[in-house]
Amino acid sequence: MFLGQxxxxxxxxxxxxxxxxxxxxxxxxxxxxQSLPTPTxxxxxxxxxLTEADFMRFDFEVVEVDETGGxxxxxxxxxxxxxxxVGGLVxxxxxxxxxxxxxxxxxxxxxxSRLVSYExxxxxxxxxxxxxxxxxxxxxxxxxxxxxxxxHFAEGGAKRPVENVTWDDAVAFCEALSRLTGREYRLPSxxxxxxxxxxxxxxxxxxxxxxxxxxxNYNGLPYDKNSxxxxxxxxxxxxxxxxxxxxxxxxxxxxxxxxCLDHWHRNYEGAPTDGSAWLxxxxxxxxxxxxxxxxxxxYPWNCRxxxxxxxxxxxxxxxxxxxxxxxxx
Length: 329
Description:
Shape: globular
Largest sheet: 6 strands, antiparallel
Distance between the termini: 48 Å
Helix content: 10-25%
Order of helices and strands: HHEEEEEEHHEHEHEEEE
C-alpha cells in the first residue's frame, strides 16, 4: 500500500475531501512524508588508524590533598588527546596508556562497607591502551548526535553533562557516533573506568585520602571525621570545572554517575583480569548495569574510585550520564 504506515485510507480521503484537489493532495503527501521513518544516513567508511600526528597536547592541573582536605601539591601536567570533529560535535579523546592495577577497595578503606563484598576481592587487572573522552558527554554533544536533549538541567546546560539517559540511550549514542565517524565508540568496561579514574593512585580518591567541594561536585558532606564540610550545589556543573586526574580526565568523581558496559555482579569473584566488560546470561541480573563515580547529589564515599553502583538499564536518572571510549589505533 502506497500510504504511509501511520496514515490510514480513511484519513487520506478526509484530507482530500476537506481541502479538495491540489491542496488535499499536497496535505496527503506531507502526511505520508511525516509518517515515514527518518532515513538513517549511510555509515562513514572505516576511519584510518590514528598516528602520532593526529594527537594534540593539552595542559591540565593536578591537585593532591591531605586527610583534612588541605592542598599539598598542585602542578601542571600534559596529556595527549585526539579531537574528533563531525557535524556539530567536538569530542576530545584522551590517550590512556596500558598498564596493570589493583582493582577494588582494600579492607581498611574508610566507608568501604565490609558488610558487603561489592568492591572485593581486590585483584590485578591488565588494561590495554585505549582512548577515553576527556569530559563527560555534554548536552551539546548529545544534541549534535541524537538531535534531542533529555536532560533535566537543560536550561543553560550546553556544557553540563547530559543526564536523564538510560543505558540504552548511552549505547545508542555510541552507535550513532560510530556510524558518523567510522570509529568504534562504546561505553567503558568497569575495569577500564576504574583504571582510568585511579590514574596510578591507590587512595580512595585520585586527589588523595579525602574529597572536597573545591575538587568535585557532590552533596558537600564530610568524607570522615578529618574531612571538611563543603557546599551542596544541588545541580550538575559544567564539565572541566575542577582539576583533572593524572591522565587528564575531568569529573571522574561526582557530577553524574557514569554508565559502564558491564552487567552488575555482587562481587569480583571470577571477574575478568584483561580489562574487558563482564557480561552474563543470568536473566535475574541482565537488566542491571554498573554505574560509577557518584553524582552531584551523592555522599563523598559514593564518589570513591572503587565505589560500585547498580541501576536498571532502562531507568533514566538526573544523577546518571556517561562518557565514551574507543580502541587505540
